[in-house]
Amino acid sequence: MEKTLVIFKPDALNRGVIGEIIERFENKGLKIVGLKMKHLDDPVLDEHYAHLKDKPFFAAYKKFMMRAPSLVMALEGNRAVEVVRAMAGPTYGIEAAPGTIRGDYSMSQGYNIIHASDSLEAADKEIKRFFEASEIFSYQRVDWEVIYAEDERK
């Protein structure tokens, strides 16, 4: 089973849609293995969004990300990274199809509700960035046997 990271950005928190989005992930069959709310500060944002540091919008984006807490969540499931990325939709909300998280909740490229890890390697680094090992839980969902076929429950 793969693990992946989702960050519910300040726009998701302020618009009151976190519960609906978590419900989508749970209904899909993904398992929540870590969840907490925190204010993201300069060092964490600089590290997490290092690939955007030279972009002209980065300072404004950091200000947006620090205006309210974010909710960070680790999910587990078969091909979790791919599943969550598909559920999130393209980065720019206007281009995201209805039925995706960004397609249903975002009209912006920067204020796009959630961050979702883009690879298994990134997910591993990002989960370690936001969670201590003791904050990631291992347990068996009671409905596991009806979510996955026997050969998929590894």
Domains counted in the coordinates: how many?
1
The 3D shape can be described as globular
Which structural class is indicated by helix and strand composition? alpha+beta
Low-confidence segments: none
Report the average pLDDT across residues.
94
Order of helices and strands: EHHEHHEHHEHH
Q: What fraction of the residues are assigned to beta strands by DSSP?
A: 15-25%
Tally of DSSP β-strands: 4
Strand order of the largest sheet: 2-3-1-4
Remind me, CATH topology?
Alpha-Beta Plaits
Proper CATH architecture: 2-Layer Sandwich
Largest sheet: 4 strands, antiparallel
What is the fold's blueprint, element by element?
Elements: E1 2-8, H1 10-15, H2 18-28, E2 31-38, H3 42-48, H4 58-65, E3 70-77, H5 80-88, H6 101-105, E4 114-116, H7 120-130, H8 144-147
Antiparallel strand pairs: 1-3, 1-4, 2-3
Description:
It is globular and about 50 Å long. It has a single domain, classed as Alpha-Beta Plaits, CATH 3.30.70.141. The chain is an alpha+beta fold and 154 residues long. The protein has eight helices and four strands. Helices cover 40% and strands 17% of the residues. It has helices at residues 10-15, 18-28, 42-48, 58-65, 80-88, 101-105, 120-130, 144-147, and strands at 2-8, 31-38, 70-77, 114-116. It has a four-stranded antiparallel beta sheet with strand order 2-3-1-4. The model has no long low-confidence stretch (mean pLDDT 94).
